[in-house]
Amino acid sequence: MKMIIIGPAWPLRGGLASFDQRLCRAFMEEGHACSIYSFSLQYPGFLFPGTTQYSTDPQPSGIEIHSVINSVNPFNWLHIGNRLKKEAPDLIVVRYWLPFMGPALGTILRRVGKNGKIKIIAITDNVLPHEKRPGDISFTKYFLRSCDAFVTMSDKVLFDLRKFEKIKPAKQVIHPLYDNFGEIISKSSARKFLREKLQLNIGEDEKVILFFGFIRKYKGLDILLRAMAEPLIKNSGIRLLIAGEFYEDRNQYQKLIEELKIEKQLILKTDFIPDADVQYYLCAVDAVIQPYRQATQSGVTPLAYHFERPMIVSNVGSFAEQVLHEQTGLVTKPEPSAFANAILRFYELGEEYFIPHLRIEKKKYSWKNLVNTILGLSHDIQK
């Protein structure tokens, strides 16, 4: 089968690009021809909250990537739609994560649809965004109407999807493991790398937990900072490694850190984390912390599963589905005292308590499962 993925890919950076490239490989491993149509312009500069949209990692080998979609140029949308219609793949898999992309992707897919034979399946990371803006509903409706079927990776997204599309086929699947960031290495080796290569002050025997990924309000880093200031945590010797780029004003966090007097409890690496370094951060810590205020699903969860790191997460979104309480991690309220108690409970149980459960549960997070779900949906589409 000939298929095309529409979504971010190298030289764009971030979890979506990593996901699309890994999915492309998964299709090829199953014997399908697959390429990616990515963006020549993903976000206008004034809409992008980070330092750069582009990766410094080398181009992934063996994957055909066309960086041709301009998210703000309607003439480009028509051109790319006609190009894809002419290329005539059997299946297009399109990522949808932000209503801003609705007009561009919806228009491209409408042109593709004029072929009459090409099946279109959307992987909907979000249907309703975490941070609401004018036009969200209309842009989302416009996009969803251009698709034939949908894949979601949480109950919440499937529920949101059915508010808009009540009839078209849709299936839920577990977000696969991010197994493309290297293998598990020893905690000692990972900490040595962070100390010597990245100059991070992380002791060999310290208790260290990790907040990983872009820093945005809905991810609740401020909740975690307040948890670190709780007396029992402050006196425990537990330190928090924050690894990820600020996608909002960092000054508010710096002021909070100073007010709480927790500077010595923190290890800060608030830059974008290159793919090549991801394994060192995950393998260097005792647990991964996700204190989100709201969520659909998170790419950090399958990353933690891959590296067999226990998780402490909020009871929002799909976390309670994906993190088994007191088996693969701990689930608690998104409140400082609740997270402080959960962190202490984690160390009471001990890291090794969680490892057997993580090794069993991670087997469910396969790319083949996602590929089979997509292919199964394609057979349900009548053209």
Question: What keywords describe this structure?
Answer:
seven-stranded parallel sheet; 13 strands; alpha/beta; elongated; 383 residues; six-stranded parallel sheet
Give a quick rundown of the structure.
It contains 15 helices and 13 strands.
User: Total number of helical segments?
Assistant: 15
Helicity level: 25-40%
Instruction: Please give the alpha-carbon distance between the first and last residues.
Output: 16 Å
Mean pLDDT rating: 93
Reported for the largest beta sheet, the result is:
7 strands, parallel
What structural category arises from helix and sheet content? alpha/beta
The fraction of residues assigned to DSSP E strands is: 15-25%
**SSE arrangement, N to C:** EHEEHEHEHEHEHEHHEHEHEHEHEHHH
Shape: elongated
Number of distinct beta strands: 13
What does this structure look like?
This protein is α/β, with parallel strands linked by helices. It is 39% helix and 17% strand. The protein contains 15 helices and 13 strands. The protein has helices spanning 15-29, 74-87, 102-113, 136-144, 155-164, 187-196, 221-228, 231-234, 251-260, 278-284, 300-306, 319-322, 336-349, 351-361, 367-380, and strands at residues 2-6, 33-41, 65-70, 91-96, 119-124, 149-152, 170-172, 207-212, 238-243, 266-269, 287-290, 311-314, 329-332. The chain has a seven-stranded parallel β-sheet with strand order 3-2-1-4-5-6-7, with helices on both faces. Helix 1 (15-29) packs across helix 15, helix 2 (74-87) runs parallel beside helix 3 and helix 7 packs parallel to helix 9 (251-260). The longest helix has 15 residues, at 15-29. The protein is elongated. The model has no long low-confidence stretch (mean pLDDT 93).
